[in-house]
Amino acid sequence: MTTTASDLTLLEAAALLSGSSEWDSRALPARELPSFVLSDGPHGVRRQLGSGDHLGIAASEPATCFPTAATVANSWDPELAEQMGAALGQEALALGVDVLLGPGMNIKRSPLCGRNFEYYSEDPILTGRMAAGLVRGIQSQGWPPPLSTSRSTARSCAAWPPTPWWTRPPCGRST
Fold first, then answer.
1. Which of 1, 30, 94, 99 would you label with 110, given CA atoms 20 to 30 Å apart?
2. pTM
3. Is position 98 within any domain?
């Protein structure tokens, strides 16, 4: 059964706007929509233990801390970003993470943005090539993640591939 947004009641749709915990979405069992796990480590896969928190103070599973996106972009090497993506994909699978919210694949538009280190570059060609390398690497692990893009400091997710996430088994888990 495939569920679309138009199939949801207003209450069900509103329930999806908040999570069951800091890093887990709400499941809708009546619609066969499983919960999914998000990771907001801008330089790696941060999987917090227990209830988690948005500050990163609580304990986390061990994971690699990669160089910032800005540092990786300074290499001008999409193959390096692809290798980093492969490692991120492996760690996400191992840690049961379904959605990576970082690194940001945005263009730096203002030097006043305090999170520019999370983005590749102000150059759209370089940013695009580095982001494509990263996504190729992640997807090479058999894990097509939703991508995180950013508008100012707000996060939004767009599914890739363009099939509903609930029609695939959760990443790294068998059904």
1. 99
2. 0.73
3. yes
Residue type, 68: T
According to DSSP, the β-strands at 38-39 and 99-100 are parallel
Count how many residues are written for the chain: 175
Establish if 7 belongs to a structural domain. Answer: no
Rg, Å, the chain Cα set: 16
Exposure string for 155-170, b = 16+ CB within 10 A, e = fewer: eeeeeeeeeebbeeeb
Query: Residue 97 sits in which domain range?
Result: 39-50+58-163
> Is residue 95 packed enough to be buried (19+ CB in 10 Å), middle (13-18) or exposed (0-12)?
middle
Evaluate whether residue 27 is within a structural domain: no
Q: Please give the pLDDT value at position 1.
A: 65
Give the CA distances from residue 167 to residues 79, 106, 135, 162, 164, in Å, rounded to whole numbers and listed in that order: 31, 28, 21, 11, 6
Give 62-93 pLDDT, tens digit per residue: 889 999 999 999 999 999 999 999 999 999 99
Q: Which SS3 state, helix, strand or coil, does residue 48 take?
A: strand
Query: Is the predicted pLDDT of residue 44 greater than 50, yes or no?
Result: yes
For residue 54, what pLDDT is reported? 67
148 within a domain of the structure (yes/no): yes
How many domains, the chain? Answer: 1
Cβ atoms 51, 21 nearer than 8 A? yes
3-state SS assignment for residue 125:
helix
